[in-house]
Specification:
There is one protein chain. It is built from 2 helices and 41 strands. By secondary structure, it is mainly beta. Strands 2, 3, 4, 6, 7, 9, 11, 13, 16, 19, 24, 29 and 31 form a 13-stranded parallel sheet that branches. A 9-stranded parallel sheet has the order 5-8-10-12-15-18-23-28-30. Strands 34, 37, 39, 40 and 41 form a 5-stranded antiparallel sheet that branches.
């Protein structure tokens, strides 16, 4: 049997037993290889997704692939090496839709560029089961890639970099009527557009509409202001808002920054024309009965462009909404480090205040995230399959738990985990972001 260790003691073998049993259920793994190399069953993603059964895993080798859609099917699409699996061939935006509560979708280690001209990166709609997007990045710099989440219960972005320099008329990530979790994710709003008819404003990094979102150790920055040549003159547009929270939405930001975009620099053409610099964007706008809460950091206004005013933009604008800010608090954050391969060791980590009392919670791939405030800040995995007390957080502020993946663990199965921790002096319970253990090789 595999073992789980911390730097303090050997934990109960119950955790290892659960992880072993949870990974013993049958699952199918298929290989997609653009070059058709040894062992490959498919050469492109659309055909593979259509052919494989519900619950399957596609292990994707390096190459360039076509955009794909997932409709009513739980499936994992996992690049073997981050940055080497590119969804770059011409086609419509990726769409994930109509999954049931027992169906999980995982996208991991993919680089996606919009090729349809619509500026859409990924659309996730009507999903009842978890949708986990990990290590996703964008590389396009002409038309900005945008991510739309609509009517979904549990969409999670882990270690995603959506920061390309293109322009678009929408936020980088728009969530409507959904539940959203961000962890270690960098979002930057599309920049201001340049045109001859009118100015396209810089856009937010994140917009929430009737959505509950939790962001952990993430950076949310509005798009940069730009210059626009108008009929009868020229103008500059201000930086974009970092985050828009509206229509009864709720944002919980833990160790997360919301920053307005930088304004455009002043410009003097060789023909003597002059365009003044523009202001930076507002850090966060909260309106229409929405709420926002910042713990461990605070919103910031964007800086003006070079040649502009010496003062920055406001950090917060309230318009019928409320916001609470506590930059001195010490919210906890969880992570899973290492490559999840059979026979290798991965590490669960908890970043929390020293002397915090911690519990590791584990659940299956069907887990949902359920708010339990005011008992604890955050959302808890449900159903909880196992709750294991661990050692208290050491003076370094980081608790580490090692787990060696058994050689006999079935491939293509996902286990979710998170930590609950009790702060030693504030007597507050923090629930960390979820993290996923998915073994596919």
């Amino acid at each position: 049997m595999s073992e789980i260790h911390t730097q303090h003691r050997l934990l109960s073998p119950a955790v290892a037993v659960f992880l072993f049993v949870a990974g013993s259920l049958p699952a199918q793994v298929f290989i997609v290889d653009e070059a058709g190399g040894p062992g490959a069953q498919f050469t492109d993603l659309p055909a593979a997704i259509d052919a494989v059964p519900d619950g399957a895993t596609l292990r994707v080798r390096a190459g360039d692939y076509s955009p794909f859609s997932i409709d009513g099917k739980g499936i994992a699409v996992v690049g073997e090496v981050a940055g080497e699996v590119r969804i770059s061939k011409f086609g419509p935006a990726q769409v994930i839709e109509n999954t049931g509560a027992g169906q999980m979708v995982l996208l991991k280690n993919l680089s996606i560029a919009p090729t349809s001209g619509l500026g859409a990166l990924l659309i996730v709609a009507n999903c009842r089961g978890p949708v986990l997007v990990e290590n996703l990045d964008t590389t396009v710099t002409v038309a900005a890639a945008t991510f739309v989440v609509h009517t979904c219960d549990n969409v999670q972005l882990h270690r995603c970099q959506l920061t390309d320099l293109g322009f678009a008329s929408r936020p980088r990530l728009l969530a409507i009527d959904s539940g959203l979790h961000l962890r270690d994710t960098d979002l930057r709003g599309p920049t201001s557009g340049v045109g001859t008819i009118g100015a396209l404003p810089a856009n937010p990094a994140l917009e929430l509409v009737r959505t509950r979102a939790i962001a952990v150790r993430s950076s949310l920055t509005g798009g940069r202001g730009g210059l626009c040549c108008l009929r009868g003159g020229s103008a500059s547009t201000p930086g974009g808002v970092g985050v828009l929270v509206s229509d009864s939405s709720e944002l919980i930001a833990l160790r997360t920054t919301a920053t307005g975009g930088r304004g455009a620099d002043e410009y003097t053409s060789q023909f003597g024309g002059f365009i003044p610099a523009s202001a930076g964007g507002i850090g966060i706008v909260v309106s229409d009965n929405a709420t926002a809460r910042f713990e461990g950091d605070e919103p910031r206004g964007g800086v003006p462009g070079i040649g502009g005013e010496t003062f920055g933009a406001p950090s917060v604008l309230r318009s019928g909404g409320t916001i609470a800010i506590d930059p001195e608090s010490e919210p906890s954050a969880g992570d899973l480090q290492g490559t999840p391969v059979r026979g290798q060791t991965v590490r669960f980590t908890l970043d929390a205040a020293p002397a915090s009392v911690a519990v590791l919670l584990l659940s299956t791939s069907q887990a949902q995230m359920v708010p339990i405030e005011p008992l604890a800040l955050g959302s808890v995995l449900f159903p909880i399959a196992l709750a294991i007390p661990t050692a208290s957080v050491p003076a370094t502020g980081v608790l580490e738990i090692d787990y060696t993946i058994p050689a006999s663990r079935q491939l293509g199965v996902t286990t979710f985990g998170q930590f609950a921790s009790l702060h030693p002096t504030r007597q507050r319970i923090w629930l960390t972001n979820p993290f996923a253990l998915h073994v596919n090789q």
